[in-house]
Amino acid sequence: MVVKFKAAFVFVLLACCLTLAASPATAQTQCGFADSIQFPVDTSAFRLAQDFGAPSPRHQGRFHTGEDWYGGRGSSYGQPVMAAAAGRVTFSSPNGWGRDGGVIIIDHTFRDGTSAYSMYGHITDATGIEFPAVFTCVRPGDVIAAVGDIRPAPHLHFEIRTANPNLPGAGYAWDNPEADGWRRPSKFVLNMQMQLSESFLWRADIADGTGPITPPIQLEDYSLLFLDANRVMRASSDGRILWRAVLQRPAVGLLPSGDSALIAYASGDIQPVNRDGTLGQSWQTGLTFDSPPMPAWGVFLFHTPQNELVALDASGRTALWRLADVPPVQRWVNNQTLLGLMTGTNEMLTISPDGQMLDHASLREPGALSLAPDGGLMAYTRGGLWTIADDGTWALESDVFPQGGRTGALAFDANGTLYLFDGAVMRAYSSDRSALWQSELPDISGTTSLSVEGSILLLTSSAGHIAALQAETGAVCNRGRIWGDWRSRLWQRLNDDGVLRLYVADQIVGLDWSEFLAVCG
């Protein structure tokens, strides 16, 4: 009897142990996949106070492993903190950081098989919100805690990490946080929101966070040749990296050449790159460059470190003219007789095809440039909408238009309808400049680009915003966003294969255009 009792006891104990060991996996299965993701606080009320990776003087220069979200003086404490996505709680303690408040960590699994942990620090249960227990499931938007009353002011510390599911950590690291498994939270959330959308097709992840260095060259099969840090690369039409060619010196741009491209180096050398990634024999132009090429009038314009604008012929071998005292260029557009340049010093320059400076205007902040239906140049600035004549003189189009500025954009359709975006509102005007409609587009940031794609207006920005509106009515078909920041540049192209390709910061994204417009039918 004793032997049987001991055997039974061991069996029951073993079964209990196995059940406990299986609990996390079972709970994860029951929690389901994370099919949506959001920020843990209301971003219209909170602002980013300390960025990911920022060195902290208060912590001996160590790097911040998350983002600090602050709701303003007297407005942060007690505000709800929400679960970013569906998942299983792996750590939960109101005293997880001692006097610096509580910590919750949640494990998320996505349908593509990837997983990540979200961590919430400086939080409290003192307002009556009970922390979820370890191994319990949470849904996106569930209130899991409140912002605590901690130093130097109440705020939420938000992390995304790929390791340490049950260790709060210090919130700071001596080494690069990304190399040790932390991810930039805003970037992760925004990119994952797009990836979980119905219109998402693919993403090519690359290195340079300020890209594109130069607009990519699209080949006839919709593959892209592009520069990324010290590499020239080719991505297939569906975002697969086909090859990488490491460059031994800094490059500033790519020039289209036949069925491939030429690499322009900062040293002034030009070198062919073939479709298979092999490099041809380079040649020296006798110049130095600090900008990507600007194609105009069948030649290539470059800015130099000496603040010159230089025109190279189509072969990339001969300098045709030089123009001195030209600041670095931010935007440009040309017609048959004029080149308009918007500089980084808030100047608008008008230049003739033979390199003569026709006009020089100082602005309060950068503006947008476009071609009018009659081929003329137009500028949309804080001062309004302007027409630029062939001799470079400016004339105010009308005083009925709102101010433009840094985030402004303009475009025309084939009927002469004018579309203006002032940074917050999109407006349409008929060819006689009568107002047709206006549509609010709040929270757009960065340098914007506006184009007319059939019956749709497409607005994109260097901060990663994407918006599609019906050109006839102004109805918003859809909005989305991928990651971008203040340093990023922008390239986008909608092709007849039905894919919108968007290149911002360190990623090229492909979106199904018809799916993105599903709301508009």
* Biggest pleated-sheet summary: 10 strands, antiparallel
The CATH superfamily of the domain at 27-184 turns out to be Glucose Permease (Domain IIA)
Total of DSSP H or I helical runs spanning 4+ residues: 3
Q: Give the oligomeric state of the chains in this entry, treating copies of one chain as homo and distinct chains as hetero.
A: single chain
Q: Using only CA atoms, what is the Rg?
A: 27 Å
What is the name of the CATH topology of the domain at 27-184? Glucose Permease (Domain IIA)
> What do the pLDDT scores average to?
92
Low-confidence stretches: 1-28
CATH architectural group of the domain at 27-184: Distorted Sandwich
Shape: globular
Strand-pairing-aware structural class: mainly beta
Q: What is the number of E strands?
A: 44
What's the CATH class of the domain at 27-184, please?
Mainly Beta
Proportion of residues in extended strands:
35-45%
Helix content: under 10%
3D structure, described in words:
The protein is mainly beta. Among the domains are: 27-184, Distorted Sandwich (Glucose Permease (Domain IIA)); 224-326, Lipocalin (Beta Barrel), CATH 2.40.128. The strands form ten sheets. Strands 1, 3, 4, 5, 6, 7, 8, 9, 10 and 12 form a ten-stranded antiparallel beta sheet that branches. The chain has a four-stranded antiparallel beta sheet with strand order 13-44-43-42. The longest helix is centred in the first third of the chain and has 30 residues, at 2-31. The model is unreliable at 1-28 (pLDDT under 50).
